[in-house]
């Protein structure tokens, strides 16, 4: 649930969105901000303009009405006041007048345009909220769609009455809504258009980046390829220069890989030479005994005891030679085989190490606890283990101790080689612990072996790591996961063993 | 409670036709007598006065009436309009008008000074009624139901628009100022209908002829009112002149023009627009009913 929530958070986090989305989003946000400000300003100006216009019309209406009815208000001539209101209603078409009431100074109705709503002599304060005489502006109540007008009728300095009028302003409010709707639609259309343009523009601008990204991603997956000529673009453009630099870099890396592979092969051959020398030495030792046994058989073959002893010596010697040959065959057979790794595949390596062990008088602590065939590439793992062990031998001081530990886990194989050497240099340590191939420290001899192990580890899907031991020396660990496919039969190695037996 | 000024004038006005107004009119007539008035000057145009009893808001009708009278009398005719009955009556009595279409009430009030020129015929008779109208949705059925109303009168010198209702209240021993909560004058019968239709007044006194004509030409206005009470038939508002000018040539020419109006195409068209049948000569006794109402009001005080 938490991981799902984290994924969701990552998905809705705009900073993790592609650039082609983020730029249009930024455009939309900017346009929204601008739209809000512009809309607010336009509506404010429109409201001010409408209020001013309404005030002017109201003043004109009240001025004309006041001068017309003032003599009648003085005489309290009900009919003439009503007649003036009735005629004014038809005359002032610019104002949508809901009603007009003329009251005396006590607030009693003298006449109104709507006598049924405002009966004669009724108190106006009972029916409407009287406006403030000090404020000449129309009091607009937008919720009701009405504006209240008020004008005092003064004669010789005395207030004889008041004109109250209510004007319908639904038209003004409707006009504002129409302006608002027009602004919103225009801005929305503009925003969407600009966002679409931004999206397309970013897509076009990001196309070279996507090309480069795809090549880098392929390179990380081990399928490095140069950018095609058709995608390079003009040489003087920014991406044209970048692409050409990338292709140049790729060429250098490929050349480096080729050289490293060549070096590795040469080292492999050198190791093979050393191994052959060791093998010759190991085979030469029993050869003397074997020849002596043969000579004994020639001379004393008729004696049962001598014959039996000679034959046993012959068998023992030949078995030793057989083990050496079998181990060599297992080591140098095709590494791309898919045979599972068994406990014996690693134990054989002890024979190959014997020349180095003896040369440096090392003590080998061998702990192989693999209890089942593992679906890991046996050849690659053996090569990697042999390289690690040879590196360990090289790093160990004379009469030092070399440790080998291998065991199976649920995930696969874990093997670790430890030495008592001076410790792996920091640059090599960092190189080993990097996830990618990185820059192999070619100046160090150990580096090439480690580079090979790392390559073998990568090929088998494993992980290589190294650490300095607290007691001194280095421990290098290789973890190789088991493949999903079931391990193949182990018959093949047995056949090989039969051949060499 | 202080009564509004207009009500004080109204109260005073109730007694004016019989005293102050008539005296005023008599004074105006006395002043006019030495010079025989402007209307009697030789070569002067005929000045014909119109009161609000007439549908004076139709300028086209006025133009056609003026054209007909000018052609028919062979003299230039000037139509003189004023806002109130009192103004026209004063102009007539002061000799500034050859004749005037006035109401029966001022005619009776100044009967000593005035003579009849002609009387309109409406629906075959020189008679009309006064209506008391109320809001169309109102449930009132009797005059008593109008107690404490805001009432609209037409003119303090109008028979149908004031005197008849005043006389009806006198029968009930009531006076308008204490029977109605408030009353006002609109100085036009159509305005009375407008005031009641709009709800400005809850009831009104109006010329029955005007209401009937309005119900034809502005039914949306009269449909919002209902006739609560019709008076008896009374003499139709007449065309009158100063008694001393009754035999004057211009007066005779005007009389002939009016009497022959229904025989002329333009005149008949004017009559049609006025919904009148024509004009006839009548005796002052036609207005005895109005005189009786004046007497009734005076007797009530």
Describe this structure in words.
By secondary structure, chain A is an alpha+beta fold. Chain A is 59% helix and 14% strand. Chain A is built from 13 helices and 10 strands. Chain A has helices at 2-12, 19-75, 78-91, 170-220, 229-232, 238-300, 304-332, 343-347, 349-360, 378-395, 426-433, 445-459, 491-500; strands at 97-104, 109-112, 139-141, 146-155, 158-168, 363-368, 401-408, 412-418, 463-468, 474-481. In chain A, strands 2-1-5-4-3 form a 5-stranded antiparallel beta sheet. In chain A, strands 6-7-8-10-9 form a 5-stranded mixed beta sheet. In chain A, helix 2 runs antiparallel to helix 4 (170-220) and helix 7 crosses helix 13. The model of chain A is unreliable at 486-501 (pLDDT under 50). By secondary structure, chain B is α/β, with parallel strands linked by helices. Helices cover 43% and strands 19% of the residues of chain B. Chain B has 13 helices and 13 strands. Chain B has helices at residues 5-15, 20-32, 59-73, 85-93, 104-109, 159-171, 176-179, 189-198, 208-217, 219-222, 249-259, 265-274, 288-300; strands at 46-50, 77-81, 99-101, 114-121, 127-128, 130-135, 150-153, 182-185, 203-207, 225-230, 234-235, 239-242, 278-280. A 6-stranded mixed beta sheet of chain B has the order 2-1-3-12-4-13, sandwiched between helices. A 5-stranded mixed beta sheet of chain B has the order 8-7-9-6-10. In chain B, helix 3 crosses helix 11, helix 3 (59-73) packs antiparallel against helix 12 and helix 6 packs across helix 13. The longest helix of chain B has 15 residues, at 59-73. The model of chain B is unreliable at 1-19 and 32-37 (pLDDT under 50). Chain A binds chain B through residues 75-79, 82-83, 86, 111, 114-116, 119-121, and chain B through 4-6, 150, 152, 181-182, 184-187, 191, 194-195, 198-200.
């Amino acid at each position: 649930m938490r991981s799902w929530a984290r994924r969701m958070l990552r998905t809705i986090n705009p900073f993790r969105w592609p650039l082609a989305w983020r730029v249009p989003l930024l455009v939309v946000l900017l346009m929204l901000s601008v739209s809000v400000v512009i809309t607010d300003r336009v509506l404010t100006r429109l409201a001010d303009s409408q209020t001013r216009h309404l005030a002017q019309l109201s003043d004109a209406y009240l001025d004309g009405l006041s001068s017309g009815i003032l003599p009648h208000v003085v005489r309290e001539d009900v009919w003439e006041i009503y007649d003036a209101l009735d005629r004014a209603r038809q005359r002032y078409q610019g104002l949508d007048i809901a009603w007009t009431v003329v009251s005396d100074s006590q607030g009693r109705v003298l006449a109104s345009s709507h006598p049924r709503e405002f009966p004669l002599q009724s108190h106006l304060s009972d029916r409407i909220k009287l406006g403030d005489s000090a404020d000449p502006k129309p009091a607009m109540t937008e919720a009701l769609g009405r504006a209240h007008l008020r004008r005092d009728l003064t004669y010789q300095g005395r207030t004889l009455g008041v004109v109250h009028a209510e004007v319908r302003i639904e038209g003004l409010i409707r006009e504002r809504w129409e302006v608002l709707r027009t602004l919103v639609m225009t801005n929305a259309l503009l925003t969407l258009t600009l966002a679409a343009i931004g999206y397309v523009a970013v897509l076009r601008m990001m196309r070279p980046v996507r090309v480069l990204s795809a090549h880098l991603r392929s390179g990380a997956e081990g399928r490095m390829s140069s950018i095609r000529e058709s995608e390079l673009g003009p040489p003087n453009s920014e991406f044209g220069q970048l692409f050409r630099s990338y292709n140049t870099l790729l060429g250098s890396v490929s050349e480096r890989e080729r050289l490293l592979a060549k070096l590795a092969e040469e080292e492999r051959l050198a190791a093979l030479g050393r191994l052959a020398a060791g093998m010759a030495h190991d085979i030469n030792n029993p050869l003397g005994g074997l020849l002596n046994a043969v000579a004994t058989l020639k001379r004393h073959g008729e004696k049962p005891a001598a014959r039996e002893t000679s034959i046993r010596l012959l068998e023992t010697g030949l078995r030793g030679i057989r083990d050496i040959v079998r181990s060599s065959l297992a080591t140098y057979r095709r590494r791309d085989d898919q045979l599972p790794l068994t406990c014996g595949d690693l134990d054989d390596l002890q024979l190959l190490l014997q020349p180095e062990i003896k040369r440096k008088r090392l003590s080998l602590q061998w702990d192989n606890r693999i209890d089942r065939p593992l679906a890991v590439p046996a050849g690659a793992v053996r090569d990697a283990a042999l390289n690690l062990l040879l590196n360990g031998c090289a790093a160990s001081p004379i009469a030092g101790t070399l440790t080998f530990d291998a065991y199976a886990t649920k995930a696969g194989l874990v093997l670790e080689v430890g030495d008592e050497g001076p410790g792996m240099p920091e640059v090599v340590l960092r190189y080993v612990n990097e996830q990618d191939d990185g820059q192999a420290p070619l100046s160090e001899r150990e580096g090439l072996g480690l580079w090979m192990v790392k390559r073998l580890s990568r090929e088998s899907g494993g992980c290589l790591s190294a650490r300095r031991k607290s007691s001194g020396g280095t421990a290098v660990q290789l973890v190789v996961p088991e493949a999903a496919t079931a391990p193949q039969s182990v018959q093949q190695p047995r056949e090989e063993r039969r051949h060499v037996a | 409670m202080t009564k509004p000024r207009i009500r004080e004038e109204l109260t005073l006005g109730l007694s004016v036709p019989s005293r102050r107004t008539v005296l005023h009119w008599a004074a105006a007539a006395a002043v006019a007598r030495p010079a025989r008035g402007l209307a009697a000057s030789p070569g002067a145009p005929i000045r014909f006065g119109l009161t609000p009893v007439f549908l004076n808001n139709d300028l086209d009708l006025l133009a056609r009436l003026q054209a007909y009278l000018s052609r028919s009398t062979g003299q230039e005719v000037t139509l003189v309009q004023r806002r109130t009955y009192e103004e026209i009556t004063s102009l007539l009595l002061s000799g500034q008008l050859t004749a005037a279409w006035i109401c029966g009430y001022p005619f009776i009030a100044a009967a000593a000074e005035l003579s009849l020129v002609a009387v309109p015929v409406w629906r075959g008779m020189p008679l009309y009624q006064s209506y008391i109208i109320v809001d169309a949705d109102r449930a009132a059925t009797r005059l008593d139901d109008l107690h404490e109303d805001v009432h609209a009168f037409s003119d303090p010198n109008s028979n149908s628009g004031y005197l008849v209702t005043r006389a009806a209240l006198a029968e009930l021993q009531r006076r308008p100022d204490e029977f109605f909560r408030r009353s006002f004058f609109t100085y036009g019968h159509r305005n009375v209908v407008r005031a009641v239709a709009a709800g400005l007044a809850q009831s009104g006194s109006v010329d029955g002829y005007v209401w009937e004509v309005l119900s034809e030409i502005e039914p949306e206005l009269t449909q919002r009112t209902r006739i609560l009470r019709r008076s008896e038939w009374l003499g139709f508002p007449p065309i009158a002149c100063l008694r001393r000018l009754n035999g004057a040539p211009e007066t005779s020419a005007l009389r002939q023009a009016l009497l022959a109006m229904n025989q002329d195409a333009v005149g008949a068209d004017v009559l049609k627009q006025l919904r009148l049948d024509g004009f006839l000569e009548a005796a002052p006794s036609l207005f005895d009913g109005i005189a009786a109402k004046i007497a009734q009001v005076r007797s009530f005080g």
